[in-house]
Amino acid sequence: MNRPLAMSVGPMLVLCLAGGLDAARNIDFTVSGIRFADNAGLDVAAWSRTHTAPQALFLAAYDHDSPISTLGARRVVLGYPGWIWTYGISDWIGREQDVQAMFQGRAEADSLVSRYRVDYVVIGPQERAPPFSANEIYWQSHAVLVYSNAEYHVYKVS
């Protein structure tokens, strides 16, 4: 038995109107905007684009939303591990440990910085948190502060 057309169109119309309202709400970023980075992250990314060479290598958090590698368009010692292994890079686990050792200023940090040829070290909210637990006192005595805002410090490695 066939249902009348009105019974089929009614639910479809309701679904389309509901979807349209949701889409309209998502267009208004004051209501639904999700920021990739806060203002301090945007600022450090902009600084890195305008004050460092495109080939500069940064020691920065290997999170997927690190401002340096994403918005700053600069190379990092290690990118997001969730993507790196899919590219067939086999040494990412060792590199992950090296990144943590450098941030924490362990005994091997100086030799690792030289081995990877790190130009800049970024210490921000992501780098201060585990697993990085950046040792800012170490970097204050082993590099030169070249940029600072409310959340981020960038050190130039000599």
Task: Provide an overview of this structure.
The longest helix has 23 residues, at 5-27. The protein is α/β, with parallel strands linked by helices. The chain is elongated. The chain has helices spanning 5-27, 29-32, 39-51, 67-70, 81-84, 92-104, 109-116, 125-128, 136-142, and strands at 57-59, 75-76, 120-123, 144-148, 153-156. The chain contains 9 helices and 5 strands; from the N terminus they run αααβαβαααβααββ. It starts with a helix and ends with a strand. Helix 6 (92-104) crosses helix 7. The chain folds into 2 domains: 1-34; 39-156, no CATH class. Helix content is 51%, strand content 11%.
Which radius of gyration do the C-alpha atoms yield? 23 Å
Alpha-beta content class: alpha/beta
Tell me the total number of β-strands: 5
Q: How are the strands ordered across the major sheet? A: 2-1-3-5-4
Instruction: Give the CA-based shape.
Output: elongated
**What is the count of DSSP helices, taking H or I runs of 4+ residues?**
9
Q: What is the element string, with H for helices and E for strands?
A: HHHEHEHHHEHHEE
Mean pLDDT across all residues, rounded? 89
Low-confidence spans: none
Question: How many structural domains?
Answer: 2
State the oligomer.
single chain
The largest β sheet comes out as: 5 strands, mixed
**DSSP strand content:** 5-15%
The helicity comes to 40-55%
Distance between the termini: 82 Å
